[in-house]
């Protein structure tokens, strides 16, 4: 939040007397005296528990969650108090009898991964005090781990043609962002949501890293075919580029006996680079591939 921050004093605490709780009290006292604002501070050995401690007592307190007391202090708390456990996650966990952080910590990792994907594993680590994320400078950009886009359609999609249009629009957006960031994707993930809000996902690796709309579209369509058959309705779609690498680290192993695809790929690179230049000059809607354009004859075109 705009009124929150983390402060890592691991290697500087000796400059303030060596007592983190005392330093927190000094900060609270100065801010109250100089700005007239109250402050709650969490002192802990990782970011997640520091955040939890800052919310533990409000509006004006210091809470220490140490390596000695964290289980007795943290585990009885409602699971919703844990960072990143929002309303939807809390509701899902409650269906399986998980009401406290301690109950979350005692769950099997495999079960949480099945229920919540990678987020389930992350929350399990948080609940067990295993957060190792370092405090980053506000000037330091966090590495991009994936680039994705999703949309909920005004009407359910029921035909292959409609789904291809939706996938093409999303792949276009993702590929454009990859090129803008100077990144290549090593794989793609597709998520299909039905009208009952049930999500199903698949992912696959590329033979070579790419940032081309065509590659993302074709792979995403193939994955969608594994998850869906017409005329089953689709409410929403997501396309995400994964396993990212910078341009100078992306390469393609060339087969000396089969280079037929190289000229075609080079032409596609030039074509999409030209599209980027046109959009940069005339706006994002200035040009698009035909597959990503809604059929004008349809009464309810896709966005």
Describe this protein's structure:
By secondary structure, the chain is of the alpha+beta class. It has three domains: 1-68, Reverse transcriptase/Diguanylate cyclase domain (Alpha-Beta Plaits); 75-135, 5' to 3' exonuclease, C-terminal subdomain (DNA polymerase, domain 1, Orthogonal Bundle); 147-247 and 257-292, 2-Layer Sandwich (Dna Ligase, domain 1). The chain is 40% helix and 19% strand. A four-stranded antiparallel β-sheet has the order 3-6-4-5. Strands 1-2 form a two-stranded parallel ribbon. Mean pLDDT is 88; it is low at 295-303.
User: Roughly how many Å apart are the termini?
Assistant: 32 Å
Placed side by side, the strands forming the largest sheet appear as 3-6-4-5
What is the CATH architecture assignment of the largest domain? 2-Layer Sandwich
What number of structural domains do the residues give? 3
**Percent helix range:** 40-55%
The share of residues in extended strands comes to: 15-25%
Total beta-strand segments: 6
Give the radius of gyration.
25 Å
Element-by-element helix/strand order: HEHEHHHHHEHEEHEH
Structural class: alpha+beta
Please write the CATH class name of the largest domain.
Alpha Beta
Shape: globular
User: Low-confidence parts lasting 5 or more residues at pLDDT below 50?
Assistant: 295-303
Number of helices: 10
Please name the CATH topology of the largest domain.
Dna Ligase, domain 1
Q: Mean of residue pLDDT?
A: 88
CATH homologous superfamily label of the largest domain: DNA polymerase, Y-family, little finger domain
Main beta-sheet annotation: 4 strands, antiparallel
């Amino acid at each position: 939040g705009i009124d929150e921050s983390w402060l890592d004093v691991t290697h500087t605490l000796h400059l303030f007397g060596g007592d983190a709780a005392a330093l927190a009290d000094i900060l609270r006292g100065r801010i109250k005296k100089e700005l007239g604002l109250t402050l709650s501070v969490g002192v802990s050995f990782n970011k997640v528990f520091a955040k939890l401690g800052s919310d533990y007592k409000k509006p004006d307190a210091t809470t220490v969650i140490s390596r000695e007391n964290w289980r007795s202090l943290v585990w009885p708390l409602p699971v919703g108090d844990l960072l990143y456990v929002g309303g939807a996650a809390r509701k899902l966990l409650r269906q399986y009898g998980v009401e406290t952080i301690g109950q979350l910590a005692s769950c099997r990792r495999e079960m949480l991964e099945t229920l919540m994907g990678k987020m389930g594993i992350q929350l399990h680590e948080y609940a067990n005090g295993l957060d190792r994320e370092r405090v980053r400078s506000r000037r330091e950009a966090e590495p991009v781990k994936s680039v994705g886009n999703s949309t909920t359609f005004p009407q359910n999609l029921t035909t292959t043609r409609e789904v291809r249009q939706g996938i093409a629009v999303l792949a276009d957006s993702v590929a454009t962002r990859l090129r803008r960031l100077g990144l290549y994707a090593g794989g793609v993930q597709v998520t299909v949501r039905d009208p009952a809000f049930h999500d199903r996902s698949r992912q696959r690796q590329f033979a070579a890293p790419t940032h081309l709309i065509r590659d993302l579209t074709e792979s995403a369509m193939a994955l969608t075919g594994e998850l869906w058959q017409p005329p089953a309705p689709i409410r929403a779609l997501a396309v995400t580029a994964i396993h990212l690498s910078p341009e100078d680290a992306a390469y393609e192993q060339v087969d000396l006996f089969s280079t037929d695809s190289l000229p075609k790929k080079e032409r596609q690179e030039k074509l999409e680079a030209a599209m980027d230049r046109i959009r940069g000059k005339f706006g994002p809607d200035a040009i698009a591939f035909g597959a990503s354009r809604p059929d004008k004859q349809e009464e309810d075109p896709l966005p």
